[in-house]
Amino acid sequence: MAGKKKKAVSSNLTDFEKLAGVVLLAVYLIVLPLWGGWLTDQLGALLGVSISRAMSNMICFYLLFAAVVLVFHAFLYQTTQIFLKAMERCFRTLGLALVLFYGLNELLFRVSALLWGNLTNLNDAALIAQVAAAPGMMILVVVFLSPFIEETLFRGLIFGWLRQHSRAVAYAVSCLLFALLHVWQYALFQANPMYLLLIVQYIVPGLVFTWAYDHSGSLWTPIAAHAAVNALAVWAVLA
Question: What is the pTM of this model?
Fold first, then answer.
């Protein structure tokens, strides 16, 4: 029996969802890295309580999670229907995405180490410290909230929107913004533009997660792949 035809990715986003999504993306990409801690500190001062950095992260991510659900609820319902109708293809894509991620990621790390040595990944170091200090809260953030928010914004919004015009541009912009998210603030804070070279380390995750969405047709596939990768990383920290 012939396999079911793959449903092509289509954003089907309204103008409101696109506009609100761009605002949420700017908040996630720029506002939270620069002022997220300061905003929660002000909230703590207003309430007369001390808010830890882990709690600050959880508050910011939970509020953004709620905003993403409110804005994209119709799109999330649609992508859930696609997942339920094509579960076999989605799970096959998920398995292959994880194999590609770990195989290609290891190769890329070795190549980048040969080209410019071992730059310390400050994003990973910060997450490791936060997970070790408050594992309960950070597991919620790293394994559940972050993958959902990032895949909805970078894949569902950016890739799905641009894919209607150019697949190559959609891949490039989605992956570049995803990579910049993890490195730009550290290059700024360290006043070291060389740190931007670590963008290369996020090429594989960006490409694999984008491909998982493009190939399966459902956003839940890259969300699951992203969550699985983060969960294994957290397990390695806590083991």
Answer: 0.93
Residue 223 lies in a domain: yes
In order, the DSSP letters of 148-203 are HHHIIIIIIIIIHHHHTT-HHHHHHHHHHHHHHHHHHHHHHHTT-GGGGGGGGGGH
* Structural domain for 118, as ranges: 74-238
pLDDT digits (tens, 9 = 90+) for 35-80: 998 999 998 999 999 998 889 999 999 999 999 999 999 999 999 9
Number of domains making up the chain: 1
pLDDT digits (tens, 9 = 90+) for 159-197: 999 999 999 999 999 999 999 999 999 999 888 888 888
Does the residue 174 lie in any domain?
yes
Rounded Cα gap, residues 197 and 175, in angstroms: 14
- The answer to whether residue 125 sits within a structural domain is yes
Asked, for residue 128, whether it belongs to a domain, the answer is: yes
